[in-house]
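Q: My labmate handed me this sequence with no annotations at all. I'd like to see what the chain might look like in three dimensions before we decide whether it's worth expressing. Could you predict it?
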Amino acid sequence: MKKIASATMILAIIALMVSCSGGGKSPADVSKAFVTSIEKGNVDDAIKMLDGGDKASEEDMTKLKAFLGEGSKQIAEKGGIKNIEVVSEEISEDGKKADVKLKITYGNGETDDSSSNLILTDAGWKMTMEK
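A: Here is what I predict for the chain of 131 residues:
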């Protein structure tokens, strides 16, 4: 009985660690979720995916929300997002940085190429503003 309880406890701890580390999401998953959040107008969710987004000043937060809101409007004007294709996902040798390239196809048939830089944090992969 103790072995079963110990095994259950270990599985629970592993599940908790995975959920706290971003749910095992890859950099490409985070990049796609970021774009999808902007499309849906969920700028607060998008900001949570930014490295340091939770530490932005009130002034910077206002600017960021306006910028992301404008992105949402532009996506809507193109008929929304029809498809997001991961073109490439490159993770650094040390596993702490990633570059993701996406091809976004809109409802009106237009396409855009998007490039994202991400960093691995204690909370999982986060979008960065660096190049």
